[in-house]
Amino acid sequence: MKRFKFLFCLFVCSFMLSMTTTASASNYSTGKAVIPAFYQGPVDYCLFNISNITDKRIDVTITFYKQDGTMLTDDGTATGGIITAGSQAIDQAIDYHDNNTDNTVTFSLDAHCSTIINLYYTGSNTEKYLGYGIISWEQDSTALQGLVAHGRQHYVDTNTNPVRVARFAIPINGGLPF
Questions:
Q1: Which residues, listed in sequence order, are joined to residue 5 by a DSSP beta bridge?
Q2: What is the pTM of this model?
Q3: Strand locations in the chain, DSSP E?
Q4: pLDDT digits 0-9 by tens, 132-178
């Protein structure tokens, strides 16, 4: 009987410990969506608007893949190269970095803030980039959704004054939060 009580007590303690571990793990949220297309070249560039719809800071990772399947990387600064945080929203992309070994862009975004990630043609290279991407987020919370994002491709008419014309929208997750 003592052995049964000991085993029962051990089982109950193990169960309670596993419930505590599970409960704390459920306070960590993540989400992911596909960026179906991007294009960057001498007269074309893309902008991606990203908004944190939660009450807490959120960590964002974006990985762009070129048409050959290789990852698009840049120079590591938010203000230079072909991948930049938007000039008006650069302060929103906290701890911005765009020269990682396992992803393209990482940054944190404060609660209820928005930023813009640009894929510009720098003029220093002749390559054109066509591809897709993955945008993901993580947060220490119980949020079911954390971001809403949308992209657009622009064309710059260089024959006249530099006129920027939006060519088409790039919906991410059908425009719905993820």
A1: none
A2: 0.77
A3: 29-40, 44-52, 58-66, 83-85, 93-97, 105-109, 114-119, 129-139, 147-157, 163-171
A4: 999 999 999 999 999 999 999 988 776 666 666 667 899 999 999 99
